[in-house]
Amino acid sequence: MNPLDLAELVALRHQAKGVPPAPRRARSLLEGSYLSHFKGRGMEFAETRAYLPGDDIRHMEWRVTARTGKPHVKVFREERERAVLIWTDFRRPMHFATRGRFKVGQAGLAAALVGWGAALRGDRLGGLIFAEGEHRELRPQRGDRGVLRLIQEMVRFPAPGSETDPSVSFTSALLRLRRVALPGSLLFLFSDFRGLSESDHTHLAQMARHNDLTLFFVHDPLERALPPPDGRYPVAMGSGAPRFLEVNQPRVREEYAARFQRRLEELTTLCRSIGALLISCSTDEDAVTALKRGFGMRP
Q1: Contact (Cβ atoms closer than 8 angstroms) between residue 137 and residue 176
Q2: Which of 36, 129, 141 lies closest to 84 in space, CA to CA?
Q3: Of 15, 173, 191, 217, which one's alpha carbon is 20 to 30 angstroms from that of 91?
């Protein structure tokens, strides 16, 4: 059963103003309505400079001309189209939670909010949804249609089955994203990032070199720390008999917590080194609040 609710994701449109915020840097001449570093006769004023032969006299800056006694013109930054690509992990580990929502539910909520924000800004929205046995690529589209298509695909995406397709993996999904992401795109990755390899680090670094990259890291409280040591906890393993989780040994508890901390530090270090933004969200948090907090916005 898919834990995402269509009506809830559609209703997020009313909370999406300012999400995502303006990008940290603008690189592209081709993608998104963000200011490029290249100047021209667009809609956004950039500066005033001395008149040069060939300049359009319709852009004369008469006040500066009168004050200096020399002709000056207004120069504008061009607004360029830019794509927002949402990469969402639907693998088996994402269909898990001990508190709150499934990890895939948190990822889907945050992805929908980013999608609605992109539509409100006039961006083109596309993306990639993947699991062990399947992947779906969505070509960028403008407006509400692009967001509704993303939401519908996430809601309809099949729950993990017993069969797997070896051609669909975490690394292959990153490669697909890297192939379709034109320079200057805004990239949002929603995952628990299990199984992240050194080669995946390289792919992320390459994408961050030419795009604005955000990693939304979803985790469950049980992954951070074991439950209280005053009980035995049954754990279901597929259709087999449940096993019991032994949590009363201090050394086991310390090693368990340290393992999660290393994983978080690895992601933090990686994002700092490549210039990406890392947003952490637990399954018992409000995903919308976590996303806005990560962007430095008021919830």
Answers
A1: yes
A2: 141
A3: 15
Burial status of residue 178 (CB atoms within 10 A of its CB: 0-12, 13-18, 19 or more): middle
Question: Where in the sequence of the chain do the CATH 3.40.50.410 domains occur?
Answer: 6-26+81-294
Rg of the chain over CA atoms, in angstroms?
23
Put simply, whether the predicted model's pTM sits higher than 0.85 gets the answer no
Distance (Å, whole) CA 275 – CA 96: 30
Burial (CB < 10 A; 0-12, 13-18, 19+), residue 260, is middle
Yes or no: say if 217 and 281 are a contact pair by the CB < 8 Å rule.
yes
Yes or no: say if 197 and 226 are a contact pair by the CB < 8 Å rule.
no
pLDDT, tens digit, 9 for 90 and up, residues 271-297: 999 999 999 999 999 999 999 999 888
pLDDT per residue as tens digits for the range 174-183: 999 999 998 8
In angstroms, the CA 88 to CA 189 distance is 6
Question: Is there a contact between 148 and 119 (Cβ–Cβ < 8 Å)?
Answer: no
Q: Work out whether strand 243-245 and strand 212-219 pair parallel, antiparallel, or are unpaired.
A: unpaired
Cis geometry, peptide bond prior to residue 229 (ω within 30 degrees of 0) = no
Q: Which amino acid is at 140?
A: P
Q: Would you state the CATH architecture of domain 6-26+81-294?
A: 3-Layer(aba) Sandwich (3.40)
Residue 61 has pLDDT above 80, yes or no: yes
Give the residue among 86, 92, 88 at the shortest CA–CA distance from 20. Answer: 86
CB 215 within 8 A of CB 276: yes
**The 3-state secondary structure of 249-290, one letter per residue:** CHHHHHHHHHHHHHHHHHHHHHHHHHCCEEEEEECCCCHHHH
